[in-house]
Design a protein that fits this description.
61 residues; mainly alpha; 46% helix; elongated
């Protein structure tokens, strides 16, 4: 949490004397949300079912 607090302080120019960890975490989530909104939308791939491995054959002797 201390590292997160340090990162948020460097990202944002305005710093408060000692915000609580919960406030820092909420600010971090807001920052991630704003980045996600700016990200370009990727086209979705067609959903095909994953290939199944063939069943192992037992040796009969």
């Amino acid at each position: 949490m201390d590292t997160l607090h340090t990162v948020m302080r460097t990202i944002r120019t305005e710093t408060k004397s000692s915000p609580g960890h919960l406030n820092v975490f909420r600010e971090f989530l807001r920052h991630l949300d704003s980045i996600q909104r700016k990200a370009p939308v990727k086209p979705s791939r067609s959903k095909t079912p994953p290939r199944r491995k063939p069943a192992k054959r037992t040796r009969r002797g």
